[in-house]
């Protein structure tokens, strides 16, 4: 099924032929220093800041490029999104990441190509959901079928929608119940996110299955310091009404963070008028999302820490589905309700004065989707579960040299009205991270997976980087392999009424990829630019057989392109950043362009602080034409027109505790469809207030 359009149970409501065409559209085929030790594993740590900036004065603001922060604690402007290696301007913080190696590392020491999005970025750009954040990230194409809550897919570096691994506080939150294993990003809210790391290129040598295109790692807020309470309320276009509430802090050996977020959009135009029968009025989507999250940590003694992360998401989407083939929009709406539980319990045991740290984790995810359509009032329920036990140890073998060794055991299970199936996987990996003379850096890893269904599979990655003296130019490269295991649905779910049967003999999809690039700082790093070339060869891709009666490993594809950026801090109060991505993604057999992979994408974001209390930001996003299919899949190879969006943001600090904010999406009310057959939201105007209260010990 197309991960970008239809719910997972729509298969049995359409002809098999339509389903096959739609499937091709989504696939390649057709910190707490008072504590005794770090109170969480790298996966649960908040971002660590190196060389924190001095307190800002009104006449000497720090650059907006890195952390343009008001002296008021509750009022902060935000930098642009930073790729790995983007060092701060003088006096600013240096970004630190975890996802490329599993070890907390300054981004400038890594060869990996990644984008870092901080809490300050999210606040300045007023992102409400993860898809909002990802829209302007280089190397990504985001497909969202109708605004908030609609099914959302991400294509990274031209690879499939199911070729990116998504991690939340160390939890693999991939959807076991989805037909092809693609993750639906629609229900992830941004209110409690501390940092996101979008890591591009094959990463299976560390992360295993799904990491062909890369990894998206989300770290949520962790409690630190005196008690802090925050709340916000926002209203605006499309009957939008959003609220957040949070409480966090730390006390002696205990830290805590509790957050509640509610997002509601009650009337989002989605159905193009030309698809409606004469005289029928379109009904807008109605979406409601309640997200509850906690993050707790306790130091039991100087060597042992336990941590817990729990996140529960409860959503309901009312949307207009289709009937018939060729299809037309229904007169009554369908319902797609999703409940998701993500949980990690962890123990951290340190030895030899912290030179050896062991991390023991238990992860559990449960995703339940309930779908009702006018033609199916009983509806269908799909439940996907994942239980994962993991251990890894980080050993400092020499100064600036670390060895990480780990093992995992994972069991996936799917349950529908007519199917119950499960599969298991065991894995072990080893990684070396080295630095020499603060100039040469190397990361190398290898991993072996043993799957109950298809057996052994080995992957690896090597990534060197060097910073040249005098010019401080960073040269970087990486070479690695990746794979994607078949989903449980692909292996076991039959549809005999349509003459379609699963294939339990499917093998993993595989890839080999490399990239090479440079980054160059100028003028004491007030200007930085760089470019990276990437190339991926994908084989054994899963697609329908010639008769559309089953699935086979048959397709091959090639993706390549460049990711280029320039950022400049023009003055202490004004910064600008531009990104450009070129992607060529083709079927290796035919040379035809793959669906929903636009060749060109660029964005420009400027941030200005005209006053200490006022932050203004503007973003321009341009996406070029792409090849698509019609809404019902009856026609393929159509050219979908590109689009240009202009978004404006502003916030004003009334005092230390109160901030007013407003945003304008799609300023010029650009009407476009992404994907074809689904209107994207037009002009949207929103405003609200955010308050914060700080306790005193």
Counting structural domains, the number is 1
- What gap, in angstroms, lies between the N and C termini? 55 Å
Point out poorly predicted stretches: 1-81, 83-92
Helical stretch tally: 5
CATH topology, by name, is Maltoporin, Chain A
Instruction: State the CATH class.
Output: Mainly Beta
Give an overview of the whole structure.
This protein has 697 residues and is mainly beta. The chain has a single domain (10-694), classed as TonB-dependent receptor, beta-barrel domain (Maltoporin, Chain A), CATH 2.40.170.20. The chain has five helices and 36 strands. The strands form six sheets. The protein has a 22-stranded antiparallel beta barrel. The chain has a six-stranded mixed β-sheet with strand order 1-4-9-10-7-8. A hairpin with a 4-residue loop joins strand 34 (643-653) and strand 35 (658-665).
Describe how the helices and strands are arranged.
Blueprint lengths: L15 H10 L56 E2 L12 E2 L7 E2 L6 E6 H7 L4 H5 L5 E5 L7 E5 L7 E5 L2 E2 L20 E8 L3 H4 L6 E7 L7 E9 L3 E12 L2 E15 L16 E15 L4 E16 L2 E2 L4 E2 L4 E18 L4 E18 L2 E23 L2 E15 L4 E17 L3 E12 L3 E13 L6 E11 L3 H5 L16 E14 L4 E18 L6 E19 L4 E14 L12 E12 L2 E10 L2 E4 L6 E5 L2 E11 L4 E8 L18 E11 L3
Parallel strand pairs: 7-10
Antiparallel strand pairs: 1-4, 2-3, 4-9, 5-6, 7-8, 9-10, 11-12, 11-36, 12-13, 13-14, 14-15, 15-18, 16-17, 18-19, 19-20, 20-21, 21-22, 22-23, 23-24, 24-25, 25-26, 26-27, 27-28, 28-29, 29-30, 30-31, 31-34, 32-33, 34-35, 35-36
């Amino acid at each position: 099924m197309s991960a970008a359009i239809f719910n997972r149970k729509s298969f049995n409501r359409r002809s098999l032929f339509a389903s096959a065409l739609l499937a091709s559209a989504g696939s390649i085929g057709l910190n707490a220093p008072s504590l005794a030790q770090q109170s969480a594993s790298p996966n649960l740590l908040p971002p660590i800041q190196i060389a924190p900036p001095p307190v800002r004065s009104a006449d000497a603001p720090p650059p907006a490029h890195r952390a343009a922060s008001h002296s008021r604690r509750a009022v902060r402007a935000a930098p642009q999104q930073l790729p790995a290696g983007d060092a701060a301007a003088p006096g600013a913080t240096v970004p630190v990441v975890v996802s490329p190696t599993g070890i907390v590392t300054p981004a400038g020491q890594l060869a990996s190509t990644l984008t870092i999005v901080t809490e300050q970025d999210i606040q300045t750009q007023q992102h409400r959901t993860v898809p909002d954040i990802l829209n302007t990230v280089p190397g990504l194409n985001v497909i969202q079928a109708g605004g908030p809550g609609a099914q959302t897919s991400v294509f990274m570096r031209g690879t499939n929608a199911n070729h990116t691994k998504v991690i939340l506080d160390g939890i693999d939150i991939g959807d076991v119940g989805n037909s092809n294993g693609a993750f639906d990003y629609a229900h992830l809210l941004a209110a409690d996110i501390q940092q996101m790391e979008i890591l591009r290129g094959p990463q299976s040598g560390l992360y295993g299955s799904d990491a062909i295109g890369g990894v998206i790692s989300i770290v949520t807020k962790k409690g630190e310091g005196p008690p802090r309470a925050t709340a916000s309320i926002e209203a605006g276009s499309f009957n939008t009404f959003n609220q957040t509430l949070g409480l966090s802090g730390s006390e002696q050996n205990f830290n805590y963070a509790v957050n509640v977020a509610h997002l509601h959009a009650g009337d989002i135009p989605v159905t193009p008028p030309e698809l409606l029968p004469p005289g029928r009025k379109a009904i807008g989507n109605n979406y409601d999302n309640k997200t509850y999250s906690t993050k707790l940590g306790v130091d039991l003694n100087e060597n042992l820490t336990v941590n817990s992360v729990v996140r529960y998401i409860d959503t309901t989407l009312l949307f207009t589905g289709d009937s018939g083939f060729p299809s037309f929009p229904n007169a009554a709406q369908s319902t797609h309700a999703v409940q998701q539980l993500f949980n990690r319990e962890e123990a951290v045991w340190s030895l030899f004065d912290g030179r050896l740290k062991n991390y023991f984790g238990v992860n559990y995810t449960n995703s339940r989707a309930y779908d009702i359509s006018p033609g199916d009032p009983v509806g269908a329920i799909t439940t996907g579960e994942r239980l994962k036990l993991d251990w890894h140890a980080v050993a400092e073998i020499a100064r600036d040299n670390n060895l990480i060794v780990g093992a995992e055991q994972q069991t996936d299970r799917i349950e529908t009205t007519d199917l119950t199936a499960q599969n298991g996987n065991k894995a072990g990996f080893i990684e070396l991270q080295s630095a020499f003379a603060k100039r040469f850096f190397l990361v190398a890893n290898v991993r072996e997976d043993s799957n109950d269904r298809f057996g052994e599979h080995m992957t690896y990655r090597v990534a060197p980087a060097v910073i040249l003296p005098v010019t401080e130019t960073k040269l970087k490269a990486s070479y690695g392999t990746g794979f994607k295991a078949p989903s449980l649905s692909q292996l076991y779910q039959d549809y005999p009424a349509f003459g379609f049967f699963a294939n339990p003999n499917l093998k993993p999809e595989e890839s080999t990829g490399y990239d090479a690039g440079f980054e160059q700082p100028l003028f004491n790093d007030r200007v930085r630019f760089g470019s990276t070339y990437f190339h991926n060869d994908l084989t054994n891709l899963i697609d329908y057989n010639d008769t559309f009666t089953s699935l086979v490993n048959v397709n091959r594809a090639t993706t390549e392109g460049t990711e280029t950026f320039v950022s400049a801090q023009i003055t202490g109060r004004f910064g600008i950043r531009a990104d450009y991505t070129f992607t060529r993604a083709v079927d290796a057999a035919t040379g035809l362009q793959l669906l929903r992979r636009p060749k060109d994408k660029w964005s420009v974001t400027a941030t200005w602080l005209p006053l200490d209390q006022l932050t203004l930001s503007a973003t321009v996003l341009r996406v070029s034409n792409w090849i698509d299919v019609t809404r019902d899949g009856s026609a393929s190879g159509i050219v979908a027109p590109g689009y240009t969006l202009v978004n404006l943001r502003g916030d004003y600090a009334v005092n230390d505790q109160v901030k007013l904010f407003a945003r304008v999406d799609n300023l010029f009310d650009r009407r476009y469809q992404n994907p074809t057959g689904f209107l994207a939201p037009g002009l949207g105007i929103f405003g609200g207030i955010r308050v914060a209260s700080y306790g005193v010990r």
